[in-house]
Write a structure and sequence with these properties.
two-stranded parallel sheet; about 15% strand; about 60 residues; alpha+beta
Length: about 60
């Protein structure tokens, strides 16, 4: 059974050398894949790089500045 779910681990740098993806608990859950990333900000930037989200500041009257 294939799953579209993906688990992204944000690991403390002091633990980065450990093979956490190989933990027994990950063998018992249905996920499509496991990967690591550096921070939530890097995930956000990577996922939104191709979307072209307009991040212009919006004023309280709803107009962009």
């Amino acid at each position: 059974m294939l799953s579209s779910d993906h688990l992204i681990l944000l690991i403390d740098p002091r633990l980065a050398h450990l093979p956490l993806e190989s933990l027994e608990i990950f063998k018992h859950i249905q996920i499509g894949g496991i990967s690591r990333d550096f921070s939530i900000q890097s995930i956000y930037n990577r996922l939104n790089a191709n979307i072209g989200i307009d991040e212009s500041p919006v004023t309280t009257d709803g107009k962009t500045s």
